[in-house]
Amino acid sequence: MGHIEGFLKIQRQEQQGRPVAERLRDFNEVYEAPSEELVIEQGARCMDCGIPYCHVACPLGNFIPFWNDRVSEGDWRQALEQLQRENNFPEFTGQLCPALCEGSCSLSLGFEPVTIRLIERQVIEHGFAQGWVVPEPPQTLTGKRVAVVGSGPAGLAAAQQLRRMGHEVTVFERDQQIGGLLRYGIPDFKLEKQIIDRRLAQLEAEGVQFMPGVHVGVSMPVEELCQGFDAILLAAGAQHPRDLPVPGRDLAGIHFAMEYLTQQNRRCAGEVIEPEVAIDAKGRHVLVIGGGDTGADCVGTALRQGAASVTSFELMPEPPNERAPDNPWPEWPRVLRKSSSHEEGGERIYSVLTRRLLGDGNGQVAAAAAVRVSWQRDEHGQWRMEELEDTAFTQPCDLVLLALGFSGPIRHGMIEQLGVALSANGAVATDANKMTSRPGVFAAGDMSRGQSLVVWAIAEGRTAAEGINQFLMDGS
Ligand SMILES: Cc1cc2nc3c(=O)[nH]c(=O)nc-3n(C[C@H](O)[C@H](O)[C@H](O)COP(=O)(O)OP(=O)(O)OC[C@H]3O[C@@H](n4cnc5c(N)ncnc54)[C@H](O)[C@@H]3O)c2cc1C
Questions:
Q1: What's the gap in Å between 169 CA and the centre of ligand 1?
Q2: Residue 172's CATH number
């Protein structure tokens, strides 16, 4: 480790967003690329602390102190080689990950954590710019055929690993474009889509085959897959939206967040949305019900579309600014975070329960009736919600976006036809090798974990690839 006092002398510096007024005029990425000098300096803040909790907290087991050190010495090539050993797509996590690693960085005990995510992003961008990220096709082929269903980060990570092991890999995707939620859920201002295309070109050059527009279990019977392939990976996500079963739910102007976000991503890709189904926030008073990444992405999208106002309702209380005593380091800090979208505008209201949605008399939503709630722990330590007296209020709104999360994978079709067992949370149950109750059928990502994160999807895809390889090669 070259900079023994780096963390004492250098302050944490995060990536800078473009000015709000400028970025609200487009859907381009919010953050500006940092200078290499800044990233080298930030790498020198890593203490190489001996027991790297950052490494443990990362679902991929990224060997972070090593690449921090290499970056601080300006050795981008070795940093990249190490980074790519554990992570197929550092450009996705470098832009999207909440950085579980930074929450566990030893430096955060008395200082600000190392900007690990920023460094990761710059290492991979440097690698692409230098032409160091090249296809790595297999040297020998096994003759085994694997079908991957779903082209989100889990399916793509598994496909790349399996191909590099020498298997013939075909990825089936129900949408017309490859990428899963990276393509159609996450807005361009968080992840521009040429970042996905750049990586897909590498997978294609390695020999991964893509079959977009194939809805397994609907347009293609599951048995066709079972007969044509030696193993199957289900990486079809957990996109069954959680609904809000309150009176007035059937009024016009109320949509699931994903319907709304997908449309905008399609527009950004140059597609035309039919006027009769288009959802547009321009001039509307928007109410986003539900916090989290999806809710924040709705806020940013509505502001860019020119909403008259954007309000978010969150059922849970506002998190504290600092760690609570029952949330010590190195746990993930449950503290208040401001996404780039929340920096841009809109109001966030916490501890609020939506009781009903009210119409304008013509079948169009016009307001939400809500009440404030308080949260207390009961004698078993479980959180209990209580409505507060005399706090009922009405929030005017003519566009409501439901961002209440996802209740699990869509069961109708592929899952039902395969008859695989489900776990208590409704996701597809697997063993430690990611094999489901049906031999030769594996599951990974949100499909087996429930709604989660990109970093977990990549990690699960890699674990599933190992499991499939073992299954196919019978331990050899
Ligand atoms: C709006 C939004 C914002 C998010 N923001 C972040 C973020 O900032 N950071 C972060 O870490 N995570 C974020 N997430 C979560 C993250 O996107 C997911 O955890 C991750 O994409 C899961 O990857 P996956 O490969 O398991 O599934 P998905 O990305 O959901 O991909 C599954 C794919 O399978 C396809 N499919 C489904 N059924 C079939 C079938 N029967 N046949 C063929 N194809 C099928 C789907 O069309 C889809 O393309 C966000 C999620 C949403 C919804």
A1: 20
A2: 3.50.50.60
